[in-house]
Amino acid sequence: MSNPNRGVALVTGASTGIGRATAITLAKAGFRVFGTSRKPTSGGPAGVTMLACDVGDDASVSKLIADIEGKAGRIDLLVNNAGIGLLGGAEESSIAQAQRLFDINVFGVMRVTNAVLPIMRRQKSGRIINMSSVLGLIPAPFNALYASTKHAIEGYSESLDHELRTQGVRVALVEPAYTRTSFEDNLVKPDQMLDIYNSGRASTNLVMRKAMETGDMPEVVADTVLKAATDARPKHRYAAGKMARQVSFLRRFVPESAFDKSLRKQSGLPV
Question: How is domain 7-266 classified at the architecture level of CATH?
Fold first, then answer.
């Protein structure tokens, strides 16, 4: 049974996929939920108030947080879910493209977090959940830049949690593996593609698409977010789904050489 007084939650990137499923799950659990999308939308999931926000824009983020505080008076839970993907060889992206990726996936998280923290510190309570990935734990050929953003979020989140505990605020990471969303259809292409990477890029894309077909439903990740949001003693990391738990275990305990060979085999690369 849901608790009708869970508090006020903000979920960025809530129009589709994991973000949408998370917003719905939190609303059913008793949170008053605000969700964001880059473009204004008239509709949204039942129980979720949708607002426009570009996490890559300081003014847009400031307006979002001011609007929510004006409507609800507080923010108890922030789920930083908004992000974009990029599939290609690291060499195939210009520095400008890499900066754009980091501006959304890393600095976007920081923008929203910095805007919300003064509210949580005044309340002396709050929970921040940052959406990471198993690619925040492991290397990923032809995902070097995307994986770098998730590795950055891992270090940022765990460090931030240590800074905020004495102020009543906790930070946790949720780490999905392959999830059945439209994420792979919306991957950004490199802006300076090179023929030498065509085969490897195509192979990785095929492996990813096949894995998505049998991956976890977004609701699996949403349930993990709810657990991370409501645990009385939150952990640093929550693996979302069976595959994510397996990858986390293997990364910690399998010898590096064996893990390297397995990763290349799974990616369709010569061992």
Answer: 3-Layer(aba) Sandwich (3.40)
